Amino acid sequence: MSKYFYRKISTSLFFSILIFLFTFFQLSQAIGASEEGGSKTDFIMHHVQDAHEWHFTTIGDTHISIPLPVILYEKGHGLHFFMSSEFVDEHHNKIEKDGFYIDDHEHIKAKDESRIFYDISITKNVASLFISVILLFWVFLSVAKKYNQDPLKSPKGLQSVFEPIILFIRDDIARPNIGEHKYEKYMPYLLSIFFFIWFNNLLGLLPGAANLTGNIAVTMTLALFTFVITTFSGSKDYWKHIFNTPGVPWWLKIPIPLMPVVEFIGILTKPFSLMVRLFANITAGHIIIYSLIALIFIFESVYMGPVSVLFGLFMNMVELLVAFIQAFVFTLLSAIYFGLAVEEHEHEEHKEKLEKAPA
Predict the structure, then answer these.
(1) Can you spell out the DSSP letters for 233-293?
(2) Stated pTM of the model
(3) Residue 113 pLDDT exceeds 90
(4) Nearest residue to 206 via CA among 35, 46, 21, 16
(5) Closest CA to 214 of 324, 67, 323
(6) Contact call for residues 43 and 30 (beta carbons, < 8 A)
(7) What is the pLDDT of residues 225-258, one digit of tens each?
């Protein structure tokens, strides 16, 4: 027992120190951003928004960043390909390149507004997306390889970490919400969406990381996946309950199709709520952490240092929980929508009547 408790205490201490270091690194990012000039809270939006370079921190006049590929397709001129470092000079001031420039909101624009082009660059969020996908493939291919080698062997390492979570998604999310006989074909999507969101939520908490799941384009794409699967999985009963809802007075369906319109709007609001919930919660958490650190520069008092760091440390620990909760909620709601789409009401009612009938 002593070894067990020692291991638990060591693990807790390790993660506490790690989160503490993350908070101080975030503080160093804020100090570097404040030295660059501009608003005292500009570094908050700089962290939340996408960018064409992966900037970590600034120490004095040294900018620690990774340039990313800029790919522009211009009608009549083909592809423009160069690194984002060509948009800044040796003092990290923004400059033009081939008639293009990056504005304050990290959007590439042309000096000549008549030029038509499409920006398909590898931005910070896209690079983070690639990293998370590679990480997901590496983790689950490693786990699958272990199972293929010996399916009956007790799980170890990564297997022991992810197996309970996979079983939790299967037994507590998919089965009860979709149904015993139909849940299996949705499991690959539910597992993919859960681990993709969870991994990227955690990666977004690392110092200098991208805010991928706090980007509304990403959350909109994830919500559209759920919407498309729900729509194409819809059974006859599902569409009947939308356009001809049973139990509703006829005058709410025929002369004025109020209920069908309300139900149809509900189809669209479900993915919208998925999109906004994930985007808002993740972005709000990042903004709160950096806002707490920004108090040091707003009040310009040495006494705010410990207060900001301690509150920032607490919010970092809360965000670890939020990272899991948001992945769980998105997966749970997707499973509920799938369950509503494939549910067969008439068969269930017939089954209940048979069960209640005397032998």
Answers:
(1) H--HHHHHHHHS-TTS-GGGTTTS-HHHHHHHHHHHHHHHHHHHHHHHHHHHHHHHHHHHH
(2) 0.81
(3) no
(4) 21
(5) 323
(6) yes
(7) 999 999 998 888 777 777 766 666 665 666 666 6
